[in-house]
Amino acid sequence: AMAAKIEALGARVARVDGGYEASMAACRADAARNGWTVVQDVSSGPQDVAIPRRIHSGYAVVATELLEQLSSGRDRAPPTHVLLNSGVGGFAAGVFGHLARRLQGEEKPRFACVEPTEADCLRRQALGDGSRTTGGPTLQVGLDCHAPCPLAWSVLRTLVDDFLAVDDSCVAPLVRYLAADPRCLHVGESAVASLAVLCKAADDAGPGGLRDRLGFTAESRVAIVL
């Protein structure tokens, strides 16, 4: 279905054996053979940062909109926590980088990247795991990335407070929950990782539980992006 929508816009869809990293390698090889420019938010090395950096900067629009919406709310206060679903890290780097520039000192929120347990390359990188390439597959296909973007990691390693991973078992129930409520967005499998963390924290509220470890209190203002 997604391929048909892409083709309807005049693009050509090329199928590749393997996952996200294999498709990126094939794309770069095709581009090199044909003299094309790869427009992608993943840097492949220190000489390949100009386009990814501009795309990461574009993600800051989401951060700006988030702050505008919160400033028009009841208490007009900035978030205490921001949780983002993360793949290679580009989106998180753009959003967190902008928020860190706007909200400094005591106003800086606690930042968390949330990944699938089957594709937790950022969490492994933060733990110093030499095998950054992780296993798979995962239902959270939009987050099914197995190696961090080097450019994004240069930002995330200094800004992110928590790297979390959620199991696929939480995906279907949360997608159904949102779909059943007319006030909520209808989302796909890759949208609910951060929401899963909130639900788990609510259930694990005892001393030393996830709620405590993430610093959630009754006064917390938690922002997530579906």
Give a structural overview:
The protein has helices at residues 2-8, 20-34, 50-71, 90-102, 121-126, 150-159, 171-180, 193-203, 210-213; strands at residues 81-85, 110-116, 162-166, 222-224. The chain is built from nine helices and four strands, in the order αααβαβααβαααβ. It has 226 residues and is of the alpha/beta class. Helix 3 packs across helix 4 and helix 4 (90-102) crosses helix 6 (150-159). Strand 1, helix 4 and strand 2 form a beta-alpha-beta unit. It has a four-stranded parallel beta sheet with strand order 3-2-1-4, with helices on both faces. The chain is globular. The model has no long low-confidence stretch (mean pLDDT 91). 33% of the residues are buried.
Biggest sheet character: 4 strands, parallel
Helix and strand run: HHHEHEHHEHHHE
The residue fraction in helices comes out at 40-55%
> What fraction of residues sit in β-strands?
5-15%
Amino- and carboxy-terminal Cα gap: 21 Å
Number of strands: 4
Low-confidence stretches: none
Mean pLDDT, nearest integer?
Answer: 91
Count every helix, treating DSSP H or I runs of 4 or more residues as helices. 9
Major sheet strand order = 3-2-1-4
